[in-house]
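Lecture notes, part 5. Sequence design as translation. It can be helpful to think of inverse folding as translation between two languages: the language of shapes and the language of residues. The source text, in structure tokens, appears below.
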């Protein structure tokens, strides 16, 4: 599984309340959630994000509440992959459940800047910054997680009977 996109980068402790503010939790419409993604942290996010872009962040990304709305908003906005130093554990699991690819790789985060173009090979655990020509090794995704992401989430994977 491979991803290529332009980077949108944030810092540490990006919590679910800034990913999708609580005032928008009265909807489950993915497009509506995407239209408000990151607006309290980055007013221009929805204007600059393009399908396939890659979000990069520091420590503890997705901390805060356990709402699934946060990874849904990110995925629906067009982000194909999130790379961070670390993720809040519930955000990590919610992301896999809804089919949003996420990777932990502090070395890559330290060497990727906003606007860089990055390729990620989840089969082999390689992140390549095309802008700086630097490569970083991370833990490859297990096959069952790759299936969940490829199928668009855990529910779709179960419907297809594709967990084996």
């Amino acid at each position: 599984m491979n991803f290529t996109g332009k980077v949108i980068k944030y810092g540490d402790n990006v919590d679910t309340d800034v990913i999708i503010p609580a005032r928008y939790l009265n909807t489950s419409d993915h497009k509506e959630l995407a239209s408000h993604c990151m607006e309290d942290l980055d007013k221009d996010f929805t204007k600059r994000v393009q399908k396939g872009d890659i979000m990069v962040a520091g420590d503890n990304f997705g901390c805060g509440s356990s709402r699934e709305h946060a990874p849904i908003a990110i995925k629906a906005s067009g982000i194909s992959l999130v790379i961070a130093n670390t993720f809040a554990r519930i955000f990590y699991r919610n992301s896999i459940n809804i089919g949003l690819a996420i990777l932990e790789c502090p070395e890559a985060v330290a060497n990727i800047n906003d606007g860089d173009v990055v390729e990620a090979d989840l089969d082999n655990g390689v992140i390549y910054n095309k802008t700086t020509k630097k490569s970083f090794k991370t833990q490859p995704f297990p096959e069952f997680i790759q299936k969940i992401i490829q199928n668009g989430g855990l529910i779709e994977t179960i419907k297809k009977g594709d967990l084996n």
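The translated text above is only one of many valid answers, since several sequences can fold into similar shapes. Strands lie at 2-9, 54-57, 81-84, 101-104, 117-121, 126-129, 134-137.
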